[in-house]
Amino acid sequence: MKSKNELFSELMRDLEVEIGTRDLTEMVMLALMDAIKAFKTSNFNNFCRQYDEFVEMICNTEPKFGIFRYYFGRLK
Fold first, then answer.
1. What is the pTM of this model?
2. What is the secondary structure of 2-58 as a DSSP string?
3. Among 13, 23, 63, 67, which is least packed by CB within 10 angstroms?
4. What residues make up the domain containing 15?
5. What is the pLDDT of residues 2-42, one digit of tens each?
């Protein structure tokens, strides 16, 4: 069974081939903004923990997507 990171990496690679790096980056960033707007919690630390897990997954794709590492590194 593949790990979440392996599955996510495959998904990102497939999307990049189909739509290109720029459009993939835009899509991920817009989806993140929509998700943050819709996210409701009474515990800010829970949000931070989940966001950190997401950034960790985004930054550990194989191959590495430098543009994601750059943007998410700046947001951290």
1. 0.74
2. --HHHHHHHHHHHHHHHH-HHHHHHHHHHHHHHHHHH---S-HHHHHHHHHHHHHHH
3. 63
4. 4-75
5. 888 889 889 999 999 999 989 998 998 899 889 888 887 77
